[in-house]
């Protein structure tokens, strides 16, 4: 029974402060929309794929040690692609106003499990520049790996392509608005319950029983002005009738 009463009080408080909660949610959603569409800088991502061929001496066997060697070689290539040696050449070749460390934070390299294809992705606020950097990294890596490891087994499988209609990967306005709505609902509900908790005024007969610790014997219901006028009119008519009878 106590849980039922608590649940009823919960919904009663929410319904009572529904306007406040709604205003807070709308404010949070509006703020998130304005910030997402007008103040957050869009980030674009372009990717190129590099194919790592097997060395000629290992193409005929295909044994387990050879497969492990190829996987280790690909992992090594993943590190080399983002190395200072490669990125510094890319910066010099493209005349970028950045450092290898800054460019390193914008580049991500990954490959699927047991795959000879390496994906090189570049994020930048400029879509065209992200495409150019991704393709330049692939070209420089293809050239430099011949001298670094004395191997010629790298080919560009799929270069990054510029698409002017490409959407930025972040920010995501819809996701930001959804998160803001949830956060606004939580904050609004919390404020509503806090206000209800801080409100110590006596409103109901249950409040009187809790405050005084005494049982209620009865209470006087409020009378509306319209009903009060009817009572007065009825009393005056009864008074006139008694005078006439006298």
Automatic annotation (TrEMBL):
It is a multi-pass membrane protein. Residues 3-93 form the Polysaccharide chain length determinant N-terminal domain. The keyword Membrane applies. Keywords: Cell membrane, Membrane, Transmembrane, Transmembrane helix. It is found in: Cell membrane. The keyword Acetylation does not apply. It comes from the Bacteria. InterPro entries: Bact_polysacc_biosynth/exp, GNVR, LPS_length_determ_N. Residues 125-194 form the Tyrosine-protein kinase G-rich domain. Belongs to the CpsC/CapA family. This is YveK family protein.
